[in-house]
Amino acid sequence: MKSIPSINKFGIWGNTDKEKFWSLLNPILSWAGENSLDPFITTRISDKLPRKFSFSPKIIKSADDFNKLDFLLALGGDGTMLSAARAVGFRKIPIVGIHLGELGFLAEVTIEEMFKRLNQIIDGAFIVNHRMVLKATLSKNGSKKTFFALNDFVVDRGKSQRMINLELYAGSHFISSYKSDGLIISTPTGSTAYSLSAGGPILEPDLSVITVTPLSPHTLSLRPIVLSDNQILKIKSIDEGDTAFAVDGQVSDYFSNDTEIYIEKASYGIKMIGFDDSNYFKTLNLKMGWGQREKD
After folding, report:
1. In the prediction, which pLDDT does 107 show?
2. Which residue of 22, 150, 212, 288 is 20 to 30 Å from 193, comparing CA positions?
3. Which CATH number applies to 9-131+269-288: 3.40.50.620, 3.10.350.10, 3.40.630.30, 3.40.50.10330?
4. Active-site residue set
5. What is the pTM of this model?
């Protein structure tokens, strides 16, 4: 894990629906000016800027503009971090998240310590953590759609009130049939998201494995399974009608039983900025109450 040697330009990505975002934008841009940094904002932020605004930052007009940045500052919650990761994609721009919401597991930095952490970044006192990304390909009659997820892919019953029947394969090997509400296929980063609430295991985020967690399976024998990252998983619905497909809980599609879903490790990962005094297990304890005993 290496630090980036020099910081000159950074981008701002944020949840513009939160008032806290707008209250922090001016101070962040002032900090950038004081430290001779070149800030960039997204078009979404630019379009909502107040008329009386004291700064004129540069605009991220296209995905390729991310290549100009040394890091991306994401202000919001976990949804904001996931959308930032999707926007950055394969471009290897490190992301640091400022937590504006109630839980915020991916966005670890609090508002109170934000400028302390930003100063550490420009001083080079940070580390870059690599997070695995999953790739899904939906294939039907020679037509393909491709999606990428930092947290998870979810196949579920969608609008139907009935359980669905799915088959899961690893390469040419049949794993199991699942009569359930669906399947969650997650990265280690996503192990503390939907997979956890469905009974999946907690995994250290720097691991490189794939977890399959069934949603309310109609049998006691079907439990979460952790697979090697070199596996190519295939999921097929054996029911009539459309089945829902979700990407990081934010992008959705539907597919029929003549569609095959292939899920594998992506050719790239997401870089997330961390610090030497960060502690994953402390984060679990503070934000999820993991390992805490009930008080008498």
Report:
1. 86
2. 22
3. 3.40.50.10330
4. 78
5. 0.89
